[in-house]
Structure formats: C-alpha cells, structure tokens
C-alpha cells in the first residue's frame, strides 16, 4: 500500500503530521475527509494589504479564508497547530515573479515580516456536485482538472492583477442549472460558474490545450462550464514580481480542520 | 412632504446626490430600493492590514464588501462616482478611541494615507425575512432594532478586538428555523443568527435595556433571536484607540449601486 492510500482514511491532523514529518509530499485530493482544503500564498507584510484588497475585489478566484498575523507561521483560525512552514506537502518559491524552485518545508525561508494567506479551493463544491449526482470526468479518470487563461480581467490592487484563470468541467446540459445553483452556495470554493458554453467568448482558443492540468472531453449533450480558479492569484503574484513569494504547489493543498460546509472558515 | 418621503422612490444615485448636495442627512432604512447598504470605517493605512484581518476573522459581525485604495476616496467596485467623503448622510469622528463629533461631509478631514472600508448591514436579510412572511416589530413600529453588548469574544487582530455586539429580533417559534435558513444565505448581511433563546447565555442581563437602539417586546410564543451586528467594528475601533478614525453614524449608511442579492459585492 502506498503512502497516499494509507492516508485516505486518516483524519486531517494525521495527514498533516505525515506531511510535517516528511512522510508524505503528494497531492491532497481525497485526503482529510471533507475538510476545507486551501490554496496558500506567503509574502512580506509590505505587500499584504494590497494582496488582501486583490482577494476582496476578486472573491470568486480568490476566496480568502485565513490570514496569519505578521511573522506568525500558525494559521490559528483554521485548526490546531497548523504550521504554514511545514504542513503543506509541497511549496513553490517565486523570486522576482519567477518560479525559482520547490520545497517540502520552508522553515529556513520563513521571515518575521511574512504574512500567510489561505484561499479556498474547488474540492468542496466538487464533493457537493458528486453528491447531487453530477459526474466529474477528471475525478473519475484520476486526472487534474483542465485550467485556462482567459480574457476576463481581474480587479487590480497595487501590483496585483492580470486575467482570470478558470477551470472547466463538462456538465450534461440538463444538469447545468443544478451545478450552477449548488456551486453558488460554496463561496469558499469559487461560487457559481463565471461562464457556460463557447470557450472563445472568454478568450479560450482550444479546449484541448489547457494551460494547466489535463485535457478533458466534452461529451455530446454536455456543455463546458467554467469556474474561477485558484491559480488566478499565482498568475497575479507572477505579474506583481515580488522579490520573494511562496505558494503551495498546485494540487498540493493545506488541509485544515474546518468543515467544508462551515458557514465561516474557522474551527469552533 | 419631507425630504425622506421625497426620496423613498428615488434610485440610489439620486439619493446619494441629495446627500452629497447637503439636501439629506437622515437615516437610510427604506431608501435606495433594495441596493446593498453598507457600514463605513475609515482609518490610516498603517492600521488597515490589521483591520482587514479583523474583518476576515469575524465575518459575521464584519462582512467586508469593499476596500478603497490608499488615499483614493472613491469606492469604485460599489458603484459609479461613490465619494466616501461626501456620500454618507452623517459621519462619526473618533479621536484616540472616543467619539469627538459628527459631520455631514469629511472632505476637509480626508488624508492621502486613508483607507475606507465598507461592511455589509442587516437591511438585506430583513427584506428577505419580510418577503418570506416573517414580521419584524422594529420595522413595523418605525423603531431602531435593539442592540446589545455580549460576552461572545471576537477574534482579535492587532489592536482590534473586544466582544461582539448583536441585534435582537423576536421571531415566532415556528418561524425561527425559516429565519435562520434565510439569513444564512446573506453573508454580506451577518449570515445566520449567533444565538437563539436565553439572553443570559450570551451575557445580556436585560433585554429591555439595549445598549443601542430601541427596546422591543418578545411576544408570547416568540423567541429572541440574535444576529451579529455591524456595531461590533465600532466597538473594536473604540477599543483600538486609533488617533483618528471615521465611521458612518449608525443607521446613516452608504447606499451602493450593488444589488442586495448580488453574489459578489460589485457592480458589473
């Protein structure tokens, strides 16, 4: 049994302990039960106010669910003993806006002026769609959802801006309204779709050539449905060209102790 | 016909123009149709990151719906030509944490390092409750909803903290679940109640003596239901003791161009 399979039934703190201990560094889909999983961005405090503004102004791609105190590496509202320096399976380190390497632990890179941000991800609404009988091809085929750059502008804040990234799921036409209404409820998970139908209308030339993730078919009788995507802030971070910024590696999320259905993103 | 009555049927920009022009300085309940109305807090940028953290950590009392750029007095996402220095009917000016006066216009007080925050208010969910057949005593009797300090702590951020303020509406017992489910949908308007029933359980000794607003009866067969209240950030601001901070005068809100039912707090 590989490490991923051995963690499938484990509670979130057990998974985080395996990650912190160096025993697991893989992707997190399907781990930690239905707890809220989050995208991570870490940067110096001098940029944090503008980044918070960027998230506030673009709540669909960037649903802000947690912010650390300056210099404090613990995400206290999101769970017990969550150390943002060690509890994410894999990190991406950006210098001057370019990806400059990966790491399994950033304790040596952490600084007293850092602020850590947690942003919701799509797993929560995908679970809800599946519960409602909407099948999701990429999950059933163990692929990464296809993601695309669009021509939809974000609302800028300081150095942060750029176009929105979306994920695509092909939905049977008779379930598009259902999928829309369900996902609208999950505001920590990108909410309702930003577009349904013609990819060219939002600047996507070729559905078969996603910018991230794996291509997925759109079966006859299905419609491509596009949701705002958590890669959007990574594009904004690249564009901003900060001297140093750290994110999770896509798909390798922080697993919190917060229930995925919670009204507010905090443990009791 | 008084000025309030003459504005009852006016669109939000018309009401704001009357306010900016000095023709109206009263409370805003029932004005601007069903547009989103917001609480306002203005402070120096050096405190803004902590205040945003305070709002993020306390989303029920402090549902953040807009943040200006530093020094920019226009709330660009919330409508066309919204000047936060002149478009609120009445302002409260706090110095060193104490209320130091009121104003109808703060253009002379505005500074290049100011950041303006907009926080959702309860009007939106009150409309939805009334639409669902839940009668609200304070509205029918033209009173201000009763508000109370509680023993429910907020999550602190920098100098901001203190206990939560709640508003109370007496709801017939058979409608409590309905009212809870409806209000839960309105996250820009304090969401689901924070408590139902015994006031002493949240530190309220005497329902008949609210800390703000007017006392309201709890009829036999009704339950007092408590929602997080937008006065909470004003208490946090007093406690923080900032040298200078400006808020709206309670009840005298900024009327935005955003639909009260919008998924995200922004005009298209």
In short:
The structure is a homodimer of 268-residue chains. Chain A is of the alpha+beta class and 268 residues long. Helix content of chain A is 22%, strand content 26%.
How is the secondary structure organized here?
The structure is a homodimer of 268-residue chains.
Chain A: H1 3-7, H2 12-20, E1 35-44, H3 45-57, E2 64-67, E3 91-95, E4 98-103, E5 114-120, H4 123-131, H5 137-140, E6 147-153, E7 163-172, H6 176-184, E8 195-196, E9 222-228, H7 232-240, E10 244-248, E11 254-259
Antiparallel strand pairs in A: 1-5, 1-10, 1-11, 2-5, 3-4, 3-10, 6-7, 7-9, 8-9
Account of the protein in words:
The structure is a homodimer of 268-residue chains. Chain A has 268 residues and is α+β, with helices and mostly antiparallel strands. Helix content of chain A is 22%, strand content 26%. Chain A has seven helices and eleven strands. Chain A has helices at 3-7, 12-20, 45-57, 123-131, 137-140, 176-184, 232-240, and strands spanning 35-44, 64-67, 91-95, 98-103, 114-120, 147-153, 163-172, 195-196, 222-228, 244-248, 254-259. In chain A, the strands form two sheets. In chain A, strands 1, 2, 3, 4, 5, 10 and 11 form a seven-stranded antiparallel β-sheet that branches. Chain A is globular and about 55 Å long. The two termini of chain A are 35 Å apart. The mean pLDDT of chain A is 95.
């Amino acid at each position: 049994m590989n490490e991923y399979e051995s963690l499938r039934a484990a509670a979130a703190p057990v998974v985080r302990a395996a990650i912190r201990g160096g025993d697991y560094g893989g992707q997190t889909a399907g781990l930690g039960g239905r707890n809220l999983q989050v995208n991570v961005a870490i940067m110096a405090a001098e940029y944090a106010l503008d980044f918070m503004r960027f998230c506030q102004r673009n709540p669909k791609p960037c649903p802000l669910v947690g912010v650390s105190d300056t210099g404090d590496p613990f995400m206290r509202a999101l769970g017990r003993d969550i150390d943002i320096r060690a509890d994410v399976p894999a990190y991406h380190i950006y210098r001057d806006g370019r990806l400059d390497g990966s790491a399994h632990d950033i304790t040596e890179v952490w600084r007293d002026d850092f602020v850590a941000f947690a942003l919701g991800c799509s797993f929560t609404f995908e679970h809800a769609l599946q519960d409602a009988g909407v099948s999701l091809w990429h999950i059933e085929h163990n692929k990464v959802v296809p993601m695309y750059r669009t021509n939809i502008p974000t609302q800028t804040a300081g150095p942060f801006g750029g176009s929105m990234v979306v994920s695509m799921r092909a939905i049977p036409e008779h379930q598009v309204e259902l999928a829309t209404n369900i996902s609208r409820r999950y505001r920590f998970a990108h909410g309702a779709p930003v577009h349904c139908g013609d990819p060219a209308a939002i600047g996507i030339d070729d559905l078969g050539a996603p910018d991230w993730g794996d291509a997925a078919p759109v079966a006859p009788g299905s419609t491509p449905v596009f949701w705002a995507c958590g890669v959007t802030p990574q594009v904004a971070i690249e564009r901003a060209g900060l001297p140093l910024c750290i994110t999770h590696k896509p798909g390798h999320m922080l697993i919190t102790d917060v229930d995925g259905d919670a009204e507010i993103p905090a443990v009791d």
